[in-house]
Each structure stands twice: as structure tokens, then as C-alpha cells.
Amino acid sequence: MRIEEDRSIGRGASPTELQWQSIVGNDATCDGTFYYAVRTTAIFCRPSCGSRPPLRENTSVFASADAARKAGYRPCKRCKPTGERLPDEEWVASVTAYIHSRYMEPLPLNKLAEAGHGSPFHLHRTFKRVTGATPAAYVQQVRIKQAQELLRSSDEAVATIGQRVGLPNAPYFITLFKKETGHTPAQYRMLHDKGENSYES
Ligand SMILES: [Zn+2]
Question: Which of 45, 63, 109, 129 could connect to 49 by a Cys-Cys bridge, CB 3.0–4.6 Å?
């Protein structure tokens, strides 16, 4: 059955495999990095939204809430992608943005606290309450996601990729990667090597 398409709604980019996994997994670590919009409902959400996962073929991604709105989508009432944020959320969002731009460098808690102009203790507690993860765990999640992207999109050696994402100790990188994804970096690359073009092109 073919659903009649609303011509007034613009199509964004198709989600990449990683974006799609974030949408299906309600991954809060991706909030703010993109928004997804569902053509059949004309609504857009944050990746972490707890609404029922949409069909992938109906899903578009946008870099900003503004872009989604301009394309004709309305903000979701549940996850409020354009909604007012509480001061704590704002603060944590500024720290997560910092992490996303600096994950390749050492990011101990005191450095994050300094960047966020708060105390390490307060940041640790607030960050965990807002995101569900400690700052240290969040940093590692971001690194592993970047490593996944590089393993899929480049031929660089595993150790080099570890260095590029801020995990220069190769055995530690491999152990952490396996803990987070269930595969070693080499296994992950093999599993995702074929069919890459069908996802990303
Ligand atoms: Zn939502």
C-alpha cells in the first residue's frame, strides 16, 4: 500500500547506519548532533526520543531543529526538540559539545569542568543526572562512535584510528571497543566492509 505523500514536506538526508542505530536505540549521546524527521507524521525528534521507532524509509535527518522546521516538520511534543532547556541541560549540552569537538585529546574530568566553568564534583553529578552517563563514560562512547565511523570509512590501521579518536593505547582501545560494541575493531570493520556504499551513498 502506498501512502500518499504530502508534497509540502521536504526530504532531508537519509540517516546513516550509525544515525539510524542512535534513533532506534534512543541514544541521548547523539542529541544535538542531528534531528530526525518522520515523513508520515510530519514530526521531528531528538535521537533520544522515546517514541516508537519510525520506518527507516520514512526517516530523514537534519543538522538542526531549524532546518527540520523549515522543511515543514513540527517539533515532537514528547522530546521537545526546540523546547526550552533547563539551565542544567544547557550547561551539560555545552560540555557535550566540547567533548564532541575535543574527543581526540585527553579529557579528564577536571579539564571538562574547567571548560564548563564548574566544579568537577558538580559537573559529574549533573552530567550523570541529565545524560544517564558519567562524563568519562560519555567521552569513551563518543570516541568509540568516531572509531566506528573511521573503521567503516577509511583503510587506516586500527592503532592509528585509536590514536585519532583519543585512545592511543592500542590494547586498551581494542578492549574498550569490544566492550562497547561486542566486536574487536578488526571484526567490526569486516562486518561493515561490504554494503557500505548502499548505506552512505
Ligand atoms: Zn520526539
Answer: 45
